[in-house]
Design goal:
elongated, disordered N terminus, five-stranded mixed beta sheet, about 5% helix, about 650 residues, single chain, mainly beta
Length: about 650
């Protein structure tokens, strides 16, 4: 990372056009100093970037990607085998977690085929429940319909669109979010695609609009034949297809998720040469009103849908519709689609819902080799930092959607909170780390100036971390001290030691701190005859102590909140007040003085407007005013003095 320095002010100090009581400096300009500082920062940035690789090598992944393993554990998402509804052929499959822990599954076209004949068909989709302990085993209301048993009803109710002669209308759920209402009740808001098509010939299908329907779930009154899973249309013409595309799954809402009370709705269009996806957002209460949405225009959120822009999604693929989820424990947004018709899922990651999205990580689904797999979905409530759960439909393999898990080859996460002076020639490091592969604490390695210094266990109590990652507990803090360091600037970097899956020991951060050189105490006499001493404290800062009465006992040592790189210079003003001068770590000449109303109170440190090398010299003029001389960075002699008044 290159940092451009555009100011000569020392970091953390505010510039003042007129330093209190002092005139400007004379001598060489300070521009050369700023250029030198910029060069130092550039070199330090390069050093830190290199150091962040850690003791183990980085995996060969692009920025933003996450290492993923091989998909496995394939299972049907279906009713129990041998039951009447176990014969259902369902296309696609999305899920939302309800507040009582159950999962609500929603499917597009659903067919019951018996002896090679279609006995029942829903062009409005179907819904089913599953328990958290067995999320792929479905249960749903059913009724006897003549000689068969079939789902009680279709899912999407209402919203008739009207299709040309020879075409049928279809209402396929494409994504959904659940909004808890309290008391085991949830408002499930379902985006669906309203389409026209001829029979099962997908080549004839075209999108009319995205609509929104609502299903109200009550754990106290679970679905039954008299209370089937039905969603009533709230707006059947919410969004028109995206410009230039009319295929299925083109409009906003083809994928959606709810994060911190905001619903994000995605839509994509595809060709062999590009993948174009956009996103809008709205509050749950406004989800059925297209005028209440805001749309991402590439830099901010705007109300005009015509100003929306494609999200950044490198490496185009030929997908179907896309799906999205926020995985809290992974701290990532995930976007999944088929690289249709290849036997692969394309999985992208982002730190913001609008991207930019990473290059796709291609995950091969073994059983999709040699057959067409489609309708890939990510299931956020079934995914975490350890694995992602995906579903898809595999032609010719099973009548039910299939579910697989993809291991996340997780590397530890965490942070270096601070590096501080801890005592003479000592620094301390404090932070936290978690390995998503386990709840047990791990360890960190600390490197100082590129060399290994100490291993520390991350077992300290951090309630803030436990609250942010409740599945892992609070005991993931680390802290420790490194001793025996020489005076000067030191950079400490911390690396978390990976356990289980994963391939890197990631850097948690680096920070620099300066240990001051020891210097002999400096003693001055106050106007009332009391002595005052200035000395380096245990942490390398400047402290002072004073006699409480002339020739009497001494006060305790009091820090002066400085970071000097040289011994201080103490002088007495014409009115008897002491004034201290020092050069800080950046070479800036600073001063502090006793306040006029007290010989024990001191001002804050202020910059005298010059950068110097070495220790300045201060003397009193004939009228008592202080005059200061110092060597500038350009080897010229600099001078400044107090102005009258």
């Amino acid at each position: 990372m290159v940092v451009v320095v555009t100011t000569e002010q020392p970091e953390g100090r505010a510039a003042s056009p007129a330093v209190t009581g002092w005139g400007g400096s004379t001598g060489a300009a300070n521009g050369r100093r700023a250029i030198a500082a910029a060069a130092v920062v550039v070199l330090l940035g390069s050093f830190l970037v290199g150091m962040l690789r850690g003791p183990a090598a980085d995996a060969a992944i692009a920025p933003g990607q996450v290492n993923l393993g091989t998909a496995g554990g394939a299972a049907d998402v279906a009713e129990p085998a041998g039951t009447p509804l176990g014969l259902l052929d369902r296309d696609a499959g999305i899920s939302v977690k309800l507040s009582d822990g159950n999962l609500l599954w929603l499917f597009a076209d659903t067919t019951l085929t018996i002896n090679g004949q279609v006995a029942w068909y829903s062009h409005r989709g179907t819904g089913a429940l599953a328990s958290p302990g067995n999320p792929f085993l479905l249960r749903e209301p059913s009724t006897a319909q003549g000689w068969i048993v079939a789902p009680s009803t279709g899912l999407i109710q209402g919203g008739g669109i009207g299709c040309p002669v020879g075409y049928s209308d279809f209402y396929w759920p494409s994504s959904a979010v659940a909004v808890p209402q309290g008391g085991g009740r949830d408002q499930v808001l379902i985006y669906y695609q309203a389409m026209c098509g001829q029979g099962t010939n997908l080549a004839t299908f075209y999108s009319i609009a995205t609509g929104v329907a609502e299903y109200d779930y009550d754990a106290a009154a679970p679905p039954s034949a008299s209370r089937p899973i039905q969603a009533n249309v709230r707006n059947g013409l919410l969004f028109a297809p995206m410009p230039g595309h009319t295929g299925a799954g083109a409009s906003y809402g083809a994928a959606s998720m709810i994060v911190n009370g905001t619903v994000y709705a995605y839509g994509c269009r595809y060709s062999p040469y590009f993948q174009s996806c956009r996103v809008g957002k709205a509050a749950p209460a406004d989800i059925a009103d297209g005028s209440k949405y805001l749309f991402w225009n590439g830099s901010t959120w705007v109300q005009d849908i015509n100003q929306s822009a494609d999200m950044s999604m490198p490496s185009a693929l030929v997908g179907v519709k896309g799906s999205a989820a926020w995985i809290p424990s992974l701290n990532k947004y995930v976007f999944v689609d088929n690289d249709w018709p290849n036997p692969q899922m394309a999985i992208r990651f982002a730190t913001n819902p609008q991207g930019p999205w990473s290059e796709p990580t291609m995950v091969t689904v073994p059983e999709c080799g040699g057959r067409t797999c489609r309708a890939g979905e990510i299931h956020g409530s079934l995914s975490d930092a350890r694995s992602l759960t995906l579903t898809y439909y595999a032609d010719g393999l099973s009548s039910a959607p299939r579910a697989v898990t993809v291991p996340v080859l997780s590397s530890p996460i965490g942070y270096l909170d601070r590096v501080t002076l801890a005592g003479p020639n000592q620094i301390s490091v404090v932070g936290w780390t978690i390995d998503p592969d386990q709840a047990a604490p791990i360890s960190v390695h600390v490197y100082v100036d590129g060399r290994f210094a100490v291993a520390l266990p991350a077992t300290g109590s951090r309630p803030d971390v436990g609250a942010a990652y409740p599945g892992y507990g609070p005991n993931h803090g680390y802290s420790g001290t490194i001793s025996g360091l020489a005076a000067g600037s030191h950079t400490a970097c911390v690396y978390a030691l990976n356990t289980g899956v994963g391939s890197i020991n990631p850097g948690l951060g680096c920070a620099s701190v300066t240990i001051r050189s020891a210097f002999a105490p400096v003693v001055a006499t106050n106007a009332d005859g009391r002595l005052e001493a200035f000395a380096a404290d245990g942490a390398g800062g400047l402290s002072h102590a004073w006699q409480t009465t002339p020739g009497g006992v001494w006060s305790v040592w009091v820090p002066m909140a400085s970071a000097s790189s040289t011994a201080p210079v103490v002088a007495r003003n014409a009115d008897g007040r002491l004034e201290v001068f020092e050069v800080d770590q950046n070479g800036a000449l600073m001063h502090s003085w006793q306040t006029p109303t007290s010989y024990t109170g001191w001002s804050s440190w202020e910059w005298l407007g010059m950068y110097t090398v070495g220790t300045p010299v201060v003397a009193n003029d004939l009228d008592g005013r202080l005059e200061l001389f110092a060597q500038g960075s350009s080897q010229r002699l600099l001078r400044t003095r107090q102005v009258p008044g």
